[in-house]
Amino acid sequence: MRVLLIYSNQTQDLILPAPIGLSYVASATRDAGHEVCFVDLLTARNPQVVLRTALEDFQPQVVGISVRNIDNVVHQRLQTHLDVLALFIAEIRAASDRYLPIVLGGPAISILGSAALRHLDADYAVRGEGEITFPALLAALDAGRDPVDIVGVCTRNDPALIDPSPSRLPTFAASGMQDWIDWAPYRRHGGTWAIQTKRGCPMPCNYCTYPDIEGHTFRRRTAVDVADEIEAVQRSVAPHSFEFVDSTFNLPETHALDICEEIIRRGLKVNLTTMGINPRSVSSELFALMKRAGFNSMMITPEAGNDTMLCNLDKGFDMQDVHRAARLARASGLHSTWFFMLGGPGETRATVDETLRFVETALRHPTFMSVFMTGIRMLPGTRLAQVHAEADADLAQPVFYFSDQVSEAWMLSRVNQTIQNQSNVVHAADEGGSTVERALHHVLYWMGVAPPYWRFYPQLLGFPLLHAMRRNNPSVGMLSEEHSVSTH
Prior knowledge:
The chain contains 19 helices and 17 strands.
């Protein structure tokens, strides 16, 4: 069959996320004998024109759409993505005068399940890993069979729209992304080449969807297999940096150590970063090996700076772990971005103040950047939503949890107080591709500096003129007490 695969993501915050998941599906679809046309709308200057042209030129028999995010999960700068997706689907419907099956997949669809078919004019939704489910669905469509019994497939023909169990692969290998995308636009925007070393997450965080998307247990690739992929991509594409996009790169720590040692053993000269360092399992040995292997940065996700909220969010570690991670990260010299969420269950002015004081003391260093979110997006399938969302809440729409013990306005005011005195602190509402950020990325790209470019934000924000502007003009949406939203 002629299969058009579309990467619909339009989000460009911090790092331009390349379509690793859809690349896995595209490779599996091609291996199953189908003709594949891959369209990346993230890097398209005019996505609708690019989509229309692909539909006219390729004349697909099936269209698959990868959906990365439901929305941007930032209450103060809310951007929903399903409306844009609906426009893309309408473009597909208008371009064909015959029945054209539309299949939705990707992380957002694994989270939403059958709810995606209630909101969007698609025929099927795939939960879990599309490498096995999507080719099986194509085989059923090609043979004229009803795909209702395929693991992971939601179908509009099911009147109840019951969510099936997500599909899971026992093992997986390289994504083959180099076969499907044009890397030049990502390179210009400071993109990092995505590598997945494991799938699944056993951590109990009550707001997180990773276990629902990838499963509750780790499925690990060998260090040799990971290094083979890096080496092959380095030869064919030569990206400036690679990024490990596991939910947690350092769990288990032995796996991360093995990967670093294999890269060092081969003498690979690469720049590396990772999005997921869990404070529970860090050591001086790990950070030293990461630096020797080529890491220039990492993202660390404590989410809170006090034991009360770490417990309430079911993080699985305590402040002793967080303080140790901060000391070791600072000693390593690696740049790191730390993520915090305010407003969760049991949050008070005292716990907010504790978290901000931790940032103001332990993370007041030019190699650190701290990013705050205020309010927690309640996502389908999470325990936070199961306990606190209204029974009939439509969680395909943005619904946020805010503690009733502290106002949103006060939390934003307290974050702004820290921002005014500490240049390496930002609120997530600040992000979104400012002119200053784009100019910095442009300069660093032409200088040949290795991404990720967010590691230079603390120095940029520390420039006296820019810091003075942020002090005098707080950019986080300052809500009055009477307009503060507390939804739970």
